[in-house]
Amino acid sequence: MVRGGPSGYMCGASNVNRLWALTAAHCLDFETPASLVNLYGGSTSRISGGHLFFVTAYHLHPGYDRSTIDLDIAVIAVDPTTPLEGFANVVPIPLPPICNTDCCGVCPEGNPITVAGWGRVDDGSLPELLRQVSKDIIPLDLCNEYWSIFPHPISHSKFCTRVEDGRDSCNGDSGSAIVRNGVQVGLVSFGSEVCGDGSLPAVYVRIEEPTVFNFVRSYIPA
Questions:
Q1: Which residues, in sequence order, are CB contacts of 163 under 8 Å at separation 6+?
Q2: Which among 67, 98, 139, 192 counts the fewest CB atoms within 10 Å?
Q3: What is the number of structural domains in the chain?
Q4: Are 124 and 85 members of one domain?
Q5: How far is CA 198 from the centre of its chain?
Q6: Can you say whether residue 73 is alpha, beta or left, with left for phi > 0 and alpha for psi between -120 and 50 degrees?
Q7: 9 is in which domain, residue-wise?
Q8: What is the 3-state secondary structure (H, E, C) of the chain?
Q9: Same domain, yes or no: 118 and 194
Q10: Any idea what the CATH number is for the domain that residue 196 is in?
């Protein structure tokens, strides 16, 4: 997870290798000094049992757009004195290969995706324990039909999932990893204002898409 200054928990994040993590760009879009940002991991509890990792820098995707929420991804550089390795329950998540077609690893057919995080629950509070849900991916054109109220189309750098039985990602899950077949195919970007009501699909960053993938690999080598 990403933590910042005195406010504590901010967003989800994922460990990519010993010195780098990923999160959503909008989680860090407030010019907070890197010295006031840190990562927490190694525990399913949001408040105890984990390890703190210090941050030296973070970089938002240069094409990130606040109005369209496009290219909503950032990389986080971890202080080498507190690397993301050697701790219990702290392991990197493999990234997908680059995809030059419409979907590759996030085509709707096949296994569902899994998202885990400490995002808000029914009463609006942040849970202490990590929660997860598995959901089916839907075609991008169907996602855009749902999101016709949004002033900008959902681009190919994103993908969407349907709400399953009122269970969905929510505020606080932003930046959390989306895993399919043991690979991190995306991260949480945005969704319905009323989490889990089923009115709008959740929208995720698609890591394999070239514009996203090349940004990530410009900082994090394979």
A1: 135, 192, 196, 197, 198, 201, 202
A2: 67
A3: 2
A4: no
A5: 20
A6: beta
A7: 2-92+211-219
A8: CEEEHHHEEEECCEEEECCEEEECHHHCCCCCCHHHEEEEECCCECCCCCEEEEEEEEEECCCCECCCCECCCEEEEECCCCCCCCCCCCCCCCCCCCCCCCCHHHCCCCCCEEEEECCCCCCCCCCCECEEEEECEECHHHHHHHHHHCCCCCCCCEEEECCECCECCCCCCCCCEEEECCEEEEEEEECCCCCCCCCCCEEEEECCCHHHHHHHHHHCCC
A9: yes
A10: 2.40.10.10
**Is the model's pTM score more than 0.90?**
yes
Could you tell me if residue 187 is inside a domain?
yes
Query: What pLDDT sits at residue 129?
Result: 83
Structure token digits, residue 194? 């009323």
Co-location of 204 and 108 in the same domain: yes
In a domain, 68, yes or no: yes
Q: What is the mean pLDDT of each run of 10 residues along the chain (222 residues)?
A: 65 94 93 89 84 94 93 97 89 95 90 86 77 90 91 90 77 90 95 78 95 97 86
Instruction: Mark 68-80 as b/e (b = at least 16 C-beta within 10 Å).
Output: bbbbbbbbbbbbe
Is the domain of 166 the same as that of 204? yes
84 in the same domain as 151: no
Residue 99 lies in a domain: no
Please tell me the predicted confidence (pLDDT) of residue 1. Answer: 63
Q: Based on the fold, state whether residues 127 and 68 are members of the same structural domain.
A: no
